[in-house]
Amino acid sequence: MVAALKAGDQRAFTEMVERYSAVVYNLALRLMNDPQEAEEVLQETFISAYRGLGNFEGRSRLGTWLYRIAYNAALMRLRRRELPTTSIDEPLLNEDGEALPRQLVDWGIRPDQNVLNDELRRVLDAAVATLPPTLRSVFVLRDIEGLSTAETAEALGLTETNVKVRLHRARLALRERLTSYFATH
Amino acid sequence: MHCKNLLGSLSEYVDGELDPALCAEIERHLAECEDCRIMVDTLRKTIILYRMAGHRPVPEEVKARLYAVLQLGTAP
Predict the structure, then answer these.
(1) Which of A42, A111, A112 sits opposite B62 (nearest CB)?
(2) Contact status of A25 with chain B (Cβ, < 8 Å)
(3) What's the pTM?
(4) Which site among A33, A34, A123, A144 is 20 to 30 Å from A23 CA-CA?
(5) What is the CA radius of gyration of chain B?
(6) Where do the domains of chain A lie, and which CATH numbers do they carry?
(7) How many domains are there within chain B?
(8) What average pLDDT does range B2-7 have in this prediction?
């Protein structure tokens, strides 16, 4: 596919868009928390990819190359917003920088489709939105989009150890927020 | 193993990425510690919920506009 893309094959480019646009969109949506800006990042990503294909040397996978373009585009927009990028409610950290659990309450639910009503979906979305972008991006790619640790590291320019640490912190923070919700529902 | 020591390894444990010896140590601890059992259970449920509900399909109109901007014809 890469050779066809570099040769300007439109069918190959369409296939690339078809294959990777969903993950690009989801990453953009979760980083921007704004559907309009997410769409702009989506378009910007594939326009940049189209222009940059000549320079793509295949050292990384095509998908992770695209996700990196999307991530950088989203970050530039976030910086331009000049809004605080840290979560208002930072988790307490132990000496290893890990979030200490504040709440240890069993949820008493089975996570199946019956549990997923609109309210819970809104709670899930709101919780992810509170994560700092550095944790949110890892969580989105690993746990929502199902990329491997290696793919996530490549996409975000991190080591695999970084990915694991950030994923763990993201999960603990989200668990804490969801515990508050399930304690009252 | 103390609860604090276990916390840092929890994600790798639920992902099945810990070496067997450490895994066994954690499981011995979990057998005796309800707080840590709750941690593991709620962590697993957190991950499952997001895997079930986190992904959004690209809206049709967004895809159509993307295809238009890229001059790719009609989106499939």
Answers:
(1) A42
(2) yes
(3) 0.88
(4) A123
(5) 21
(6) 2-81 (1.10.1740.10), 91-185 (1.10.10.10)
(7) 1
(8) 79
